[in-house]
Design a protein that fits this description.
Chain B: This is Immediate early response gene 5 protein. The complex is a heterodimer of chains A (449) and B (323). Mean pLDDT of chain A is 92; it is low at 1-7. Chain A contains 2 helices and 32 strands. Chain A is globular. In chain A, the strands form 9 sheets. A 4-stranded antiparallel β-sheet of chain A has the order 1-32-31-30, with no helix packed on it. In chain A, strands 2-3-4-5 form a 4-stranded antiparallel β-sheet, with no helix packed on it. In chain A, strands 8-9-10-11 form a 4-stranded antiparallel β-sheet, with no helix packed on it. By secondary structure, chain A is mostly beta strands. Chain B is mostly helical and 323 residues long. Chain B is built from 15 helices and no strands. In chain B, helix 5 packs antiparallel against helix 6 (114-122), helix 5 (104-112) packs antiparallel against helix 15 and helix 8 crosses helix 9 (211-217). The longest helix of chain B has 22 residues, at 2-23. The radius of gyration of chain B is 17 Å and the shape is globular. Classes of the chains: A mainly beta (449), B mainly alpha (323).
């Protein structure tokens, strides 16, 4: 199958492919998916949940017999990445929720990923074992030691096939480097270092060294009472190993160059859009807080998500974004209620497609939105069990703001704010998307014609 | 006027969130609390800038401007704003119902703004206990400059920085059984925490009192809990209002509020945090110090001018981010 880079033209129709997760209403909070990430080839799809578990799906090889059915994702490995911990010194509990997963590029037969909770980053090695040695001299088949006196011959152990076993082992644990809650990790393009960012600091790690990290950004004021902003997300440039960006709760993005100084407190570039005074409200600051920042695959643009919009910035223009997309502007008049029920603090993520032509982000009522940067079209789709028939085409959804509601529209007041899509992922080269809806993972593909 | 009410409501909701954040799993989220404190600041600004004359201290929530009380609040000094009650006041302070969990904030608000107070109580149980912890910690923190105001939160621990860098401890310093915020039973807790408190004027040397404990008595006096002699008259008008409005539940809550936990919040806020309040970092010092000395210099006759209210709300924002 020739990979098709996604473009949201009029011809693109998204179809349901699979859904993972339980259906019953009594799903526990531990099952809530907290991060979704494809690996660099798209062969593997990892999810992390609030219970500290990581589930990896692998795409099955596409069979020649079923060209109309592209490879499905099946469970490949499941392991407990983080456990709840208790910091006795500070008397606080450390949640096991997986905040982020990032894959390392594959360099040998094994797969490596980084997973993090609020305080600790772990490097996991996921490897397959499909052979096992048999014919030991000193051990019998069950592993019990044999009495040397009974051994009369020598033989060479041989490897025999066995059922495929996928094992995940923690290879490194990077702990005790963060006072505040880790919100981001990002693997550097040199594949030797990565960074972890919490509310006030960003640390640079070498994969081989767990007992040291370099602090490269520190915005903690000398007097905590003077704190005005925190770091909300950070990411390395996809190609330049010296460049990274981090976003703040004030709606600004700073691009830093590690060659300039050891401590990158002084930014190289500062991206900020002047506030629109006509939109000022009690909650202006909250909704301007950036919840996610992502470099485009090309490295020329960054995309940021705040509560109501997604913005695309050109790295060469700092004073305003080049594109702004309204995700759910109908919520602007409801900010007070959303503040009351805490929804205004939801941190939505955003993703690019493989060709950087389409961007996607989530919303409420299990809606998610896609914006085509070239055609300026946008579409709202829904991840729901009702649309879960195999290869069922997703129907675009519409939220009606005014009084008159058309037949297929849903009114703002009917939106279910408990069903939120915070985490989505786009296959690196194909039109396959993974959408996390609470404890279910939906996989959609574009229609194969 | 609507702006004021809206701001009022938002303030109370925000305080509820701050409280809840302290009992949340995973520790206090700095980002969320920062945002909440920003909202608080915005609400405060609106509140102060809205030229509504009816801002009465002890009025019933929602009652726009009870003119009949205007006289009395004048007598009631803004002592509620963090100043320790004079010894005489303590005895004058009626023993409130054992509802220690009432948040301190409402108390402060009550003295400064009835509506706000009411709204805060409206948030109800959500505000139990947690404020106290923050209050205590903040209390300790501001120990230095506020020696006279130390009455309530228990002058503890020297001014050592009780705020660890990271999320604050969720445990109450006084050693009361943790996690009970929702099951306040006044009696046992009061016993355990109130005992060490001297009846006198001295700030208790023992460590922090759980807000609950203090709540009932209001005595040990949280700094804000027991206003000066004018407090009693303050109470009356409020009761009248409450009867008038018929909101019995609210009335009860308000009375509880008065009692004591207010002090906790005041204490939290006593220290500076002006960085948030003035939008530019580094400018906070002078203002903070001004605020801290403010409460000590009580101004009788001041009902609700900007300054006292400012004292109230500044501290909130600051304290919020503090922890």
């Amino acid at each position: 199958m020739i990979p098709r880079l996604g473009a949201l033209t009029q011809d693109t129709l998204w179809c349901f492919s699979q859904v993972k997760g339980t259906i019953e209403i009594g799903a526990t909070e531990a099952d809530i998916i907290s991060t979704v990430e494809f690996n660099h080839t798209g062969e593997l799809l990892a999810t992390g949940d609030k219970g500290g578990r990581v589930v990896i799906f692998q795409r099955e090889q596409e069979s020649k017999n079923q060209v109309h059915r592209r490879g499905e994702y099946n469970v490949y490995s499941t392991f407990q990445s983080h456990e709840p911990e208790f910091d006795y010194l500070k008397s606080l509990e450390i949640e096991e929720k997986i905040n982020k997963i990032r894959w390392l590029p594959q360099q040998n037969a094994a797969y490596f990923l980084l997973s993090t909770n609020d305080k600790t980053v772990k490097l996991w090695k996921v490897s397959e074992r499909d052979k096992r040695p048999e014919g030991y001299n000193l051990k019998d088949e069950e592993g019990r030691l044999r009495d040397p006196a009974t051994i009369t011959t020598l033989r060479v152990p041989v490897l025999r096939p066995m059922d495929l076993m996928v094992e995940a082992t923690p290879r490194r644990v990077f702990a005790n480097a963060h006072t505040y809650h880790i919100n981001s990790i990002s693997v550097n393009s040199d594949y030797e270092t990565y960074m972890s960012a919490d509310d006030l600091r960003i640390n640079l790690w070498n994969f081989e060294i767990t007992n040291q990290s370099f602090n490269i950004v520190d915005i903690k004021p000398a007097n905590m009472e003077e704190l005005t902003e925190v770091i909300t997300a950070a990411e390395f440039h996809p190609h330049h190993c010296n460049t990274f960006v981090y976003s703040s709760s004030k709606g600004t993005i700073r691009l830093c160059d590690m060659r300039a100084s050891a401590l990158c407190d002084r930014h190289t570039k500062f991206f900020e859009e002047p506030e629109d005074p006509s939109n000022r409200s009690f909650f202006s600051e909250i909704i301007s807080s950036i919840s996610d920042v992502k470099f485009s695959h090309s490295g020329r643009y960054i995309m940021t998500r705040d509560y109501l919009t997604v913005k695309v910035w050109d790295l060469n223009m700092e004073n305003r974004p080049i594109e702004t997309y309204q995700v759910h502007d109908y919520l602007r008049s409801k900010l007070c209620s959303l503040y009351e029920n805490d929804c205004i603090f939801d941190k939505f993520e955003c993703v690019w497609n493989g060709s950087d032509s389409v961007i996607m982000t989530g919303s409420y009522n299990n809606f998610f939105r896609m914006f085509d940067r070239n055609t300026k079209r946008d579409v709202t789709l829904e991840a729901s069990r009702e649309n879960s028939k195999p290869r069922a085409i997703l129907k675009p959804r519409k939220v009606c703001v005014g009084g008159k509601r058309r037949k297929d529209e849903i009114s703002v007041d009917s939106l279910d704010f408990s069903k939120k899509i915070l985490h989505t992922a786009w296959h690196p080269s194909e039109n396959i998307i993974a959408v996390a809806a609470t404890n279910n993972l939906y996989i959609f593909q574009d229609k194969v014609n | 006027m609507e702006f004021k009410l809206e701001a009022h409501r938002i303030v109370s909701i925000s305080l509820g969130k701050i409280y809840n954040s302290r009992v949340q799993r995973g520790g206090i989220k700095l980002h969320k609390n920062l945002l909440v404190s920003l909202v608080l600041r915005s609400a405060r600004q609106v509140y102060l800038s809205d030229p509504c004359p009816g801002l009465y201290l002890a009025g019933h929530p929602g009652t726009p401007a009870p003119p009949q009380q205007l006289g009395e609040p004048a007598a009631g000094p803004p002592a509620g704003w963090g100043e320790p009650p004079p010894p005489a006041a303590r005895s004058a302070w009626p023993e409130p119902e054992p509802q220690p969990e009432r948040p301190a904030v409402p108390e402060v608000l009550r003295t400064g703004d009835a509506e706000t107070a009411a709204a805060v109580t409206g948030t109800g149980d959500a505000l139990q206990g947690g404020e106290g912890e923050a209050a205590e910690a903040a209390w300790r923190r501001v120990e230095g400059p506020r020696e006279t105001a130390a009455g309530g939160a228990g002058g503890p621990a020297g001014g050592s920085d009780v705020f660890p860098e990271g999320p604050r401890p969720a445990r109450r310093p006084c050693g009361c059984p943790p996690g009970d915020e929702d099951t306040l039973s006044a009696a046992p807790r009061m016993d355990c925490c109130r005992t060490p408190r001297p009846a006198g004027d001295q700030p208790p040397a023992t460590p922090p009192v759980c807000p609950r404990k203090r709540g009932a008595a209001g005595v040990g006096g949280g700094p804000a809990g027991c206003p000066a002699p004018g407090s009693t008259p303050l109470k009356k008008p409020r009761r009248n209002l409450e009867e008038q409005s018929g909101g019995a539940a609210v009335a009860a809550e308000e009375e509880e509020m008065e009692t004591g936990n207010v002090a906790n919040l005041i204490s939290i806020f006593g220290s500076s945090f002006s960085g948030l309040l003035r939008k530019s970092p580094g400018g906070g010092r002078e203002e903070a110090e001004g605020e801290e000395t403010g409460p000590e210099a009580t101004e009788p006759g001041q009902i609700c001018c900007d300054k006292p209210v400012l004292r109230d709300i500044n501290p909130w924002s600051t304290a919020i981010v503090a922890f």
